[in-house]
Amino acid sequence: MAPGSYCTSLWLALADHWQEWRESHRRIVLCDTDPRTGRSHVAVFARGGEG
Questions:
Q1: How does pLDDT run across 6-51, given as a tens digit for each residue?
Q2: What is the pLDDT of residue 2?
Q3: Is 31 exposed, middle or buried, given 0-12, 13-18 or 19+ CB atoms closer than 10 A?
Q4: For 10, 19, 31, 49, which has the most beta carbons within 10 A of its beta carbon?
C-alpha cells in the first residue's frame, strides 16, 4: 500500500484472498465500518453466469 493511503483490514484480506475465495464461494458479502468516519458499506461479489 502506498504511503499515506488508508484501507481497513477487510479490504486488505479481499485483496490477498480474492482468488481463493472465488474458488470456494459462489457469493462473497463484505460489510465494513470505517473507524475514522463511522460509515458502513456493504459489497456483494457473485460469480457471473449463475441463474
A1: 667 888 889 999 999 989 999 999 998 888 888 999 999 998 865 4
A2: 60
A3: exposed
A4: 10
> Per-residue b/e over 14-26, b at no fewer than 16 CB within 10 Å?
beeeeeeeeeeee
Pair 31, 42: CB distance under 8 Å: yes
C-alpha cell at 44: 456483494
Could you tell me which residues come within 8 angstroms of residue 33 by beta carbon, excluding any fewer than 6 positions away?
39, 40
